[in-house]
Write a structure and sequence with these properties.
The chain is α+β, with helices and mostly antiparallel strands and 245 residues long. It has helices at 43-60, 68-92, 140-146, 152-156, 193-196, 201-208, 214-227, and strands spanning 2-8, 18-24, 30-38, 100-101, 103-108, 113-118, 122-127, 130-133, 177-181, 187-191, 234-240. The longest helix has 25 residues, at 68-92.
Length: 245
């Protein structure tokens, strides 16, 4: 397996409120995660760091992810733990009131692949050289699309397209959507909306299918997003199977 992750502040924001990690253990199990924080006074950065630090801490406690059912239970448990930590931080730091974060996470073992998300950071897979979005955004416009009040095209340019309906630190109790993914995929690709708001899925797919080394492909995508304005922080976590795996 080849893995690489990177986060960039973009061209407009003064601070980077994204956090990203790729973890693996001796059993060839991987966890990829991105958190896109929100809130004034740099509190979004705190919320995203709480999230990624907790994911890392809890993964490092495990010898193995275990069965698929155990991994799903682990995901649900750590999400509630993260949510509790964010609310506790808010109670002790009044200036942080209203902070929160998205989370997109993927677990890959030899037996299964799971994706989970809260908010509008995205999880994709690359299969047969085609990019497929797995996660579903918890946004107002996505809700309106699902009820037929907006078309997909109208949603792209809606003035409130970034209004979240679910986020860590905003909902209590919190629930994470979990997706069971085909294990034959070629790549796992996670990103914050700083990438998908600047590039089409087709543009992302083209770079991932290029012959570039994994690090160069990720950095090229971030550079392309910045060249188109870089309106937000941009984060990517990418796992790619090597030939023959």
């Amino acid at each position: 397996m080849q893995t690489f992750y990177f986060t960039d502040p973009g061209k407009v924001r003064e601070h980077n409120e994204d956090s990203v990690i790729i973890l693996n253990n001796n059993n060839n199990e991987f966890v990829l995660a991105i958190a896109d924080g929100m809130g004034g006074h740099n509190c979004g950065e705190i919320a995203s760091k709480i999230t990624i630090n907790t994911v890392s801490k809890e993964f490092n406690k495990l010898e193995t992810m275990g069965t698929k059912e155990e991994a799903i239970d682990w995901l649900r448990r750590i999400v509630q733990e993260i949510n509790n930590e964010i609310f506790e931080y808010e109670e002790n730091n009044i200036e942080s009131k209203g902070m929160g974060t998205t989370l997109v996470i993927a677990i890959k073992t030899n037996d299964y692949i799971l994706y989970g998300n809260i908010g509008d950071s995205s999880g994709f897979v690359l299969k047969n050289n085609e990019l497929h979005k797995i996660t579903k955004d918890h946004t107002l416009v996505n809700l309106l699309v699902s009820t037929g009040e907006l078309t997909e095209e109208e949603a792209k340019y809606h003035p409130r397209k970034n209004v979240l309906m679910r986020a860590l630190g905003a909902n209590n109790p919190i629930d994470i959507d979990i997706f069971d993914v085909d294990t034959s995929v070629k790549g796992l690709f996670l990103c914050s909306d700083g990438l998908t708001n600047m590039l089409t899925y087709e543009q992302i797919e083209k770079v991932l299918n290029s012959k570039l080394p994994i690090e160069e492909a990720v950095l090229k995508l971030i550079n392309k997003a910045n060249m188109r304005g870089g309106h937000d922080n941009i984060s990517i976590a990418y796992l790619k199977r090597e030939s023959g795996e």
